[in-house]
Each structure stands twice: as C-alpha cells, then as structure tokens.
Amino acid sequence: MYFEYTAEQRALAKRVGEFAAERIAPYRRESDVRGGYRPGLLPEMAAAGLFGLRVPAAYGGLELDASSAGIALEELAAADLTVCFPVLNAALVAGVLAANGSPAQLSAWLPPIARGDAIVAVCLTEADHGTDAAGIRMRATPDGDGWVLTGEKVSIMATAYATHALVFARTGGSGAHGITAFYVDLDSPAVSRERLHDLGCRAGGRGTLAFDGLRVGSDDVVGRPGAGFVEVMRGFAFSRALIALMAIAVGNAAIDEAIAHAGRREAFGQPIGRYQSVSFPLVEYATLLRGARLVAYEALGKADNGLDPRIPSNMAKWWAPKVAMEAVHQALLTLGHLGWSEDGPIAQRLRDVIGLQLADGTAGATKLVVARHLLGKENAP
C-alpha cells in the first residue's frame, strides 16, 4: 500500500505549515516560559479554520476526513506540540456531536466550534479513574427536566482556555452502560478550574475542572442517556492515531534539527555526520518514525473508509510516543550542550513529547486493546 497526499491534502499541509511557521513556531519558547499561548493566538487559529477541521460544511466547518485532520495536526505539532490540544479536542468533539446530536443540537453546538467561539475540552478522566474510564464516579442526578452534575475531572487538556466541554458522568449503575455524555457550557459559578504545573506542554493549560451542582438540561445530553461511554466513545476510535502523529511530528522535527547540526558542526577536521556513531542513530530513528507514521495513517485510512481502526490506532499509540521520545533524546545527544540547554531547540521538545506516552491511554492500556483483538478476550489479559 502506497501512501501519498491528494492535491487537496498537499494544499492543506502547505497552508497549515506556513501558518504554523509564521504564527506559532517563533513563539514556542515564549509560550512555554509563560505557561500560556500568546495573546490572540486562538482567534488566529480559528480564522485559519483549524477548529473546523471535522465540522460538517453545513455548520461552517471544513468537513475534512480523519487523514486530513492528521495532516493538519502534524504540521502544528512540528511547530509547537502544545497548540495541538484545542485543535484535537475540536476535531474529536465535533465528530462525536455530529454523529450523535439532533438537528437542533448541531445547529446550536457546531457553528461556535468552527468559528472558535467555543473552545472545547473532553472531561472523562478522574483522580481515581484514568485507564479504567468506565469506572468513573462523577454523578449526574435527575432534576426535573434536566440533570445536576457533581464531581471533579482531572488532567483535562485546555482547561485554561475551554468554554465548553464534553462531560461524562454516571447516571445509572456501575460499568460503561451507566454513563451519559453531556455537552455543557463552562461559564457558570458552579464550575471551577485549577491549573496543573507540568513537566512539559506548559502552554497547553492542563488542569482540573470541578462541578459543584451544575444544572444542565435534557437537550444537553449527547445521544441517549446511559449510552455515553458505549456509543459516544466510538467517535474516539481513531483519536490515538492522531496523538501518535503529533508525537511523530515532534520526533521528526528534532531529528531534522540534529541532521542539520551534524552537517555544520565539525570535529577533528570534518562534519560530525561523517562519523557512524552520529549518523547511524539518526537514520535508525528516522526509519522508526516513518514506520510508526504509516501505521497511524493506516488507522485513519480505515476510519475514513468505514472500517474498524482500533488495531492500528492502538498500535500507533503505544509505539509512536515511545519512538518519538527516544528520537528527541537522540537529537539532544547529537547537539550536545546545545541540546541540553533550554535556550536550544531540543530540550522543550523532549519535555513536551514525554506526556504523549500518557495522553489518551498508556502503552499498557493500548497494548491490552490490541491483545484482545488479536487473541480474543478469552485468551488475553
């Protein structure tokens, strides 16, 4: 199978790449030090169509396929990984809403996402329930013709910026079938947020959202009550492939910087790239990153063709962040003291990419999904 961009995808990559090079990359270190995006960035990203990647055209979006969303995220991640999270959230949530919402809900929900008026978060993880997401405890209690949300969500990317959220809460008994998804406005005294202080992705605004009796209506339910985890989560089947591509882009950017350095840095009278101990590790990681990238795009291609993407998506998710982290580490070693310095191009990339080994499922969780598909649930952990 040969993978090549279509003409439309080449144009998309060029447009997003140019935007990222001009409006994102020059501010990467500044945003990291500040712990937030530069003022005006989110409206600029909205104007560039980045929040409407997966929003149907009828609601003001670009209506791109999953593969094209992956292309856009790659271009952004190469410039600054942290800006990907609100774009990723918008793509995933818009897809979930479009597949499960009523016409009235879609008319109310999707245009603001496409315009960037609604910056969305995905509220699933809790303090005691990360990998075991079906065990979440946050409650949605019936109240007249609506519900009252009470509980806390942790490790939520874009907490600092989010205006709306897809919130998963328990409305029934234990297990996945007792969970309902709600699309809620976070502008309420009943919602409080707290930033977390992280090793990397500091501008990404990860934090905690606490819901203290937030009342929502029945028209805020996404899909059917009690079907939030089982039905709505199907829309996230390829999310791990998108995260894998974000990691790969960071790894490739670091390897490119190391290759450029190996061509201009001299030792013992010749460029250091002439030494196998320098060039061969870079070749190895360039190879591994390319392989992981193909697995990720296999998953997105399956999703675009109505096929189950879960095996390649989970394979890509456990493999790509690990390879990318190791590739960035190798690039740091290649640059030597320039790599070690926070003033250089590598150190922040290493801190940032480590987090993708946790995001949306650890290696253990994703390998478990693959094992159960390959061996069958009766023969797998």
Automatic annotation (TrEMBL):
The Acyl-CoA oxidase/dehydrogenase middle domain, residue ranges: 121-212
Single GO MF descriptor: flavin adenine dinucleotide binding
InterPro entries named among the record's database cross-references: Acyl-CoA_Oxase/DH_mid-dom, Acyl-CoA_Oxase/DH_mid-dom_sf, AcylCo_DH-like_C, AcylCo_DH/oxidase_C, AcylCoA_DH/ox_N, AcylCoA_DH/ox_N_sf, AcylCoA_DH/oxidase_NM_dom_sf
Cofactor: FAD
All copies of domain Acyl-CoA dehydrogenase/oxidase N-terminal, residue ranges: 6-117
Domain called Acyl-CoA dehydrogenase/oxidase C-terminal: residue spans: 226-375
Membrane-spanning parts: none
Keywords, sorted A to Z: FAD, Flavoprotein, Oxidoreductase
UniProt family annotation: Belongs to the acyl-CoA dehydrogenase family.
PANTHER family, per the entry: ACYL-COA DEHYDROGENASE, ISOVALERYL-COA DEHYDROGENASE, MITOCHONDRIAL-RELATED
Name recorded for this polypeptide: Cyclohexanecarboxyl-CoA dehydrogenase
Species this protein is from: Amycolatopsis cihanbeyliensis
